């Protein structure tokens, strides 16, 4: 029996708040501040985002965020978008999500960084309550991002430390990968390690093995995307033989460093040529800790269920593969051990009940 993927309990580790707005919400918020959008009908706007993202370039992909960030400059807008994100994820069967965003991008209207964080946290809390009222039990942790091309990483890291007991579970750096290695923000990562705040790093998406190695050198616990680690896997030299892993790939596999793969987004940005040929399949087969994520639900026109469906239909993933990826995501969540163990059990039992 084929699993109904929407009903399966899923854990989402890599989802950007400013990349997942509802099209109707974006239209309404933009109209309220007089921001011109490329389309004002929600369906047409959603299509524009996906078509714009399918450029094969991470830099052009990121340009779409000019419109979403423009409307996220007030506490009211931030709280609304955060609450709606939780509701949308819960409706898709996500039982735990780690949603990330860069507070520094939401201060153009005069908000202090602290006000941004508190508004988003209020929205997540409201979304969790409203989802529960609708019969869906879900939880959300926040990852605060610093933009790697800017110089605000210490402020973002300090925010992660300040709000680590108020729903912020970790830190990340985002933005253009090439030319902006994680070691450029080494002081922020040093602070986070000293304060025992976990972090993940965007690496191995637009840039290759050097990016992955640099992320590991600053102590990342997970790799945001990370799929370019497949560049360190050499195909078997004889039919039926096993591929050979280079030292970097072996390190990532052997230490179970989780890969936050986002299939549709990876194809859009050029990190993968297609879903059918996505490196996540090879890496999964070789024993890497591969997880399945959305990256940006609006920009990629996707959901966690959709990503899993594409892997099943186009890359040959079995339901057992998808269940293992879901368990791997639960095991990698930035949660205290008792909560993580309970999440793993919920995910494992939930998938088992559907098969």
Structure description:
The chain is an alpha/beta fold and 355 residues long. The chain has a single domain (10-349), classed as Metal-dependent hydrolases (TIM Barrel). It has 16 helices and 10 strands. The chain has helices at residues 23-33, 42-53, 58-63, 65-70, 75-91, 113-133, 153-162, 186-194, 209-217, 247-254, 263-269, 279-285, 297-300, 304-314, 319-332, 337-354; strands at residues 10-16, 94-101, 139-147, 168-174, 200-203, 222-225, 233-234, 244-245, 259-261, 290-292. The chain has a 4-stranded parallel β-sheet, with helices on both faces. The protein is globular, with a radius of gyration of 19 Å. The relative contact order is 0.14.
Spatial order of strands in the largest sheet: 1-2-3-4
Rg, Cα atoms, Å: 19 Å
- Separation, N- and C-terminal Cα atoms: 6 Å
What would CATH call the class?
Answer: Alpha Beta
Order of helices and strands: EHHHHHEHEHEHEHEEEHEHHEHHHH
| Helix fraction by DSSP (H/I, runs of at least 4) | 40-55%
Please identify the oligomeric state: single chain
* Average of pLDDT: 95
Q: Rough shape?
A: globular
Return the structural class: alpha/beta
CATH superfamily heading = Metal-dependent hydrolases
Largest sheet at a glance? 4 strands, parallel
Number of DSSP-assigned strands: 10
| Integer count of domains | 1
Residue fraction in strands = 5-15%
Tell me the CATH architecture: Alpha-Beta Barrel
Number of helices: 16
- CATH T-level fold name: TIM Barrel
Low-pLDDT stretches are none
